[in-house]
Amino acid sequence: GQCTAHCPVGALYEKDETPAVWQALQDPKKHKVVQIAPAVRVAVGEAFGLEPGTILTKKIYSVLKRLGFDAVFDTNFGADMTIMEEASEFVERFVHKKGPIPLITTCCPAWVDYLEKYYPDMIPHFSTAKSPHEMVGALTKTYYAEKKGLKACDVYGVSIMPCTAKKYEISRSEEMKASGCQDIDVVLTTREFTRMIKSSGIDFLNLPDSDPDHILGDYTGAGVIFGATGGVMEAALRTAYYFITGKELGKVDLEETRGLEGIKKATIDIQGTKVNIAVAHGLANVQYVLEEVKSALAAGKEPPYHFIEVMACRGGCVGGGGQPYGATDEIRAKRARGIYQDDKQSEIRCSHQNPMVQQLYKEYLGKPLSKKSHELLHTHYHERPLYNR
Ligand code: SF4
């Protein structure tokens, strides 16, 4: 468990929110929308006697439809969107020198909470891109609601997450209400979700497969690897490479960022330019990397890295605090294997190639980092006192 006595977000005390979701599902005035995070699909099966890492995405879509959700989306679509925005931020800073390097990822809310309390001086280094499920939430209550002729506040958004910290993230600031009301209404953990499936009496494992709803449900292999440590970095580099060179990467697998080593470092060659990256998971490792950066900057030296991925949980979200209890490294590795298998099997493996992402920019957002993208898909960070949020 990543949630020690120092757990920054009170995640030790999981609040059961299934009653609120059951109630919403009975409410005909609400349009119920749900999304699942990448790491959920490779862990739900464990509660039904399957091996960790078994990919159940299409059965999860089916059970969510049977439970009465009006639309079933996927956080992986949001992950593709996060990559579009974050890779663009990286290019802005690294190539065009508009903003400080290293750029540090921020899709983990336990990490964001920690940085606001312990590293507020590093705030300019953080990506302002919202986390994937918040992006899907904001787009559901704006773009999707407008298309459907629905009022934002009549849409009820549920996120099924491997994470207890996400419960706090949905109300962390006014920016989580880009649509005018809270963009995600409730976060359920993988454990709460499996309890819902079990109490529904639905024969989950024997359900036929289904597809997600368009367009906020269609994802690429880059979107799904967000669930494992190193995945965000790998996905971002696939797209940053294209943004910088105008060419597609020949080999998209980036083995250097994978696996359970606490800090992974690599130098990536983008057409003769060296990009130094670091991937840290588990807060002790994160602290180590940040101190390296801080001391280089304080000494007036070049920082050792240009781009850093951070996840609070060991193994990344596959080892999250909302996953089935009792994760070991063996279980984390098996879940991660499921994630990389899903990527490998995907026809499209880079976020910028997702046709639905392209359509969304064309129809609605313009381009990454546009005014509208900033309004809906970005956030800001503020120093927070240690004991009084
Ligand atoms: Fe949540 Fe852990 Fe993933 Fe961070 S790494 S988003 S705390 S599950």
Shape: globular
CATH C-level category:
Alpha Beta
Mean pLDDT: 94
Biggest pleated sheet = 4 strands, parallel
The H-and-E topology, N to C, reads as HEHEHEHHEHEHHHEEHEHHH
The tally of strands reads: 8
Structural class: alpha/beta
Catalogue the ligands. Answer: iron/sulfur cluster
Uncertain ranges: 1-6
Task: Characterise this structure.
- The protein is an alpha/beta fold.
- It has one domain (18-376): Fe-only Hydrogenase (Larger Subunit), Chain L, domain 3, CATH 3.40.950.10.
- It has 13 helices and 8 strands.
- The strands form 2 sheets. It has a 4-stranded parallel sheet with strand order 2-1-4-5, sandwiched between helices. Strands 3-8-7-6 form a 4-stranded mixed sheet.
- Helix 3 packs across helix 5 and helix 3 (75-94) crosses helix 9.
- The longest helix is centred in the first third of the chain and has 20 residues, at 75-94.
- The radius of gyration is 19 Å and the shape is globular.
- Residues 1-6 have low confidence and may be disordered.
- Iron/sulfur cluster binds at residues 2, 108-110, 162-163, 165, 311-313, 316-317, 320.
- This is [FeFe] hydrogenase, group A.
- GO terms for molecular function: 4 iron, 4 sulfur cluster binding; ferredoxin hydrogenase activity; iron ion binding.
- Keywords: 4Fe-4S, Iron, Iron-sulfur, Metal-binding, Repeat.
SSE layout and pairings?
Blueprint: H1 18-25, E1 31-36, H2 57-67, E2 71-74, H3 75-94, E3 103-104, H4 109-118, H5 132-148, E4 155-161, H6 166-169, E5 186-189, H7 190-200, H8 221-224, H9 231-245, E6 263-270, E7 273-281, H10 283-298, E8 307-311, H11 329-345, H12 355-365, H13 371-377
Parallel strand pairs: 1-2, 1-4, 3-8, 4-5, 7-8
Antiparallel strand pairs: 6-7
The structure holds iron/sulfur cluster.
